[in-house]
């Protein structure tokens, strides 16, 4: 795989040096290279922001987005659905921002084809845009269960503003919602719809909630808390069909049970959106494969975010995507000294008001041991996984204040043998003796 930008990269590096020496040149002279961004979401636009810091005059930038507006914070779609935020409050780059920075935005006109031979992208409208560098940030799409009835009106994902509008319209009519998926996104959607007045049931194929981030006991504690708040939760539920005459009316399960529904929210995970890259002949596996510079097998094309596969890993959390943006921007700017290195990440979440923290290997294996603290009355649960006198994983519910300290111990591989018996009680007590 190419590891550098090649001859054109040398040209960009020279352009970057020239920019510092002759900063007064006219825009038309300075912005000689053309950068096209496919995907007007958080990953791509964060890369553009980082690029503008490093080389604001290097590129003529054109952005294509599928949605008919500027870039917004998808992380805040749940507060928007719940009524805690409005659209203006979650907008990161309104249309005026693009104009202020000399960026051409084609919103609501997604790219449908990449012509690598001509170095041109073709939008749905037929518009063509040439590029010297191309950045793919096509994100991911909700996984829709391949079952009968999955296209009925009233079946919706939870990925964009249009999905939120669809759910709000259903909530105004009241009735019953079934959320398929007991991960973070599904639980947030369920809680928001319940606040909007709907009767909500969460169905999850696994035997505990948020099984990717929490162990079974933490998942059970979370389930009990959510049920006390009014959510219905059905676990080990294999959805087999959605039925209705002209719209959603019921969800069917493999065990023969049926739930009436006026709205079905698919929150059973996402899949990297790689169709455009694959059709263009880029090397794709689970996602678009990139090297340590975020460059694809085509040295003119880079990719960042949820559409990316780096060393067999794909990404969904903000922290690694932000680091990808920094590295990719440096190489686009011709300052190609950075490399993307995957780092251990910790997950700190607040699910419907419940604090959760998860880091490291929460399952453990042969030779590992566990330290567990449970306080059901106060809703506190702590579980530390140790191996060879070192902390390798941590799950916290309710009291997460020591989460970053546990994470630091995991990252450093610190020997905790001398204070092992006090570990569950946190940093303050361990440091005091």
TrEMBL record:
This is NAD(P)/FAD-dependent oxidoreductase. Residues 346-413 form the NADH-rubredoxin oxidoreductase C-terminal domain. Its cofactor is FAD. GO terms for molecular function: oxidoreductase activity. The keyword Flavoprotein applies. Residues 34-314 form the FAD/NAD(P)-binding domain. It comes from Massilia litorea. Residues 1-26 are annotated as: Disordered. Keywords: FAD, Flavoprotein. InterPro entries: FAD-bd_OxRdtase, FAD/NAD-bd_sf, FAD/NAD-binding_dom, FAD/NAD-linked_Rdtase_dimer_sf, Rubredoxin_C. Belongs to the FAD-dependent oxidoreductase family. It comes from the Bacteria. It holds the Pfam family Rubredoxin_C.
